[in-house]
Specification:
Oligomer: single chain
Radius of gyration: 21 Å
Strand order of the largest sheet: 1-2
Shape: elongated
């Protein structure tokens, strides 16, 4: 039995939506103000440590994944307090996954 590509291609697709180009998203969601300053300060701090200009240790921490934006913000607030207390010795960087990369059953993440 022979199938033609059109008989099986996109068989279960009911619609699609074109995604904006990365450059368009970057322009639309451009960092500015305090957010931009936070990112730039973080980049400079990490670079200083990697270039051995800063003796602190970089510590990357975070929850396995987040269940809600509110929980992520609460975690960030608490971590910021700790990061400020230990700032002379550690640069604490929060990382978070929005999906559970190794989960195939059950809760798969926020996205």
């Amino acid at each position: 039995m022979s199938y033609r590509t059109k008989d099986i291609e996109n068989l279960h697709i009911i619609g699609h939506e074109e995604l904006p180009a990365p450059a368009a998203l970057k322009a639309e969601l451009a960092l500015e103000g305090r957010a931009l300053e936070t990112v730039q300060t973080g980049h400079r701090a990490v670079k200083g440590i990697l270039d051995h200009e800063d003796a602190r240790l970089i510590v990357v921490v975070g929850p396995c994944s987040i269940h809600s934006p509110e929980e992520a913000l609460e975690y960030a607030r608490r971590l910021k307090t700790l990061a400020d207390e230990l700032a002379d010795e550690l640069l604490i960087v929060m990382r978070v996954y929005f999906e559970k990369p190794r989960t195939s059953i059950g809760w798969e993440g926020l996205i």
